[in-house]
Amino acid sequence: EVQLVESGGDLVQPGGSLRLSCAASGFTFSDHYMDWVRQAPGKGLEWVGRSRNKANDYSTEYAASVKGRFIISRDESKNSLYLQMNSLRTEDTAVYHCVRASGGSYSDPDYWGQGSLVTVSS
Amino acid sequence: DIQMTQSPSSLSASVGDRVTITCRASQGISNRLAWLQQKPGKAPNSLIYGASSLQSGVPSRFSGSSSGTHFTLTIDSLQPEDFATYFCQQYHDYPLTFGGGTKVEI
Fold first, then answer.
1. Which end of chain A has fewer CB atoms at under 10 Å, N or C?
2. CA A54, CA A34: separation in Å to the nearest integer?
């Protein structure tokens, strides 16, 4: 059974940093592209970024709104995906979901984690 | 960026109704479109991929279709558990983008 469990969400001041983790199980982690998607309170879904699979060197893509501030990484030995968030802004307040893509390039999102709440406020 | 225009933003329906939600892409996405269902306080759940293929375990009353850059999600015979918010998502090009959502209410 595929499971994605996020952790690390917290209240942080503007300008601060936070790292989210996503523990993956039930599939071969290195084979799949993985995304981070966020949802601000009462709002729609916004794609944050992507980590490609091992065959593509775990290369990354980012939304313009977070590029240069957020970094996506993986630890293959722990089957974990990470989102390092720096220079946080109030508009980054959201639930952050870890999402598995069904395979590699052009693959659809098929499993979502429950999410981790990040609140940026003074 | 590819814009996904979803309509309506909300609709009221009754159990047993047929419901149709549409999504239009601002450019061609080669049917790389997913439909997601989200219930309050829960993570989204993937229903359809490739515009018309059902994810495993999704009831057959859900169906998807496409015509060029126009995509449709249809729910035949709406069930109580179908009252939720539905989103479309394109995964053809970066940044991946979502429609604004359709809230299906009683």
1. N
2. 11
Q: pLDDT tens, A104-119?
A: 778 899 999 999 999 9
HEC assignment per residue over chain B: CCCEEEECCEEECCCCCCEEEEEEECCCCCCCEEEEEECCCCCCEEEEECCCEECCCCCCCEEEEEECCEEEEEECCCCHHHCCEEEEEECCCCCCEECCCEEEEC
What residues pair up with B68 in beta bridges, in sequence order?
A: none
Distance from the A86 Cα atom to the nearest Cα atom in chain B, whole angstroms: 20
Residue pairs spanning A and B at CB distance below 8 A: 54
Q: Tens digit of pLDDT for each residue in B2-56?
A: 999 999 999 999 999 999 999 999 999 999 999 999 999 999 999 999 999 999 9
d(CA A25, CA A7): 15
Answer yes or no: do B89 and A35 touch at CB < 8 A.
no
pLDDT of residue B95: 97
The answer to whether the beta carbons of residues A58 and A41 sit under 8 Å apart is no
Find the closest chain B residue to A5 by CA distance: B43
- Model pLDDT, residue B35: 98
Q: What is the largest CA-CA distance in chain B?
A: 38
- Residues of chain A positioned with their CB less than 8 A from the CB of B101: 44-45
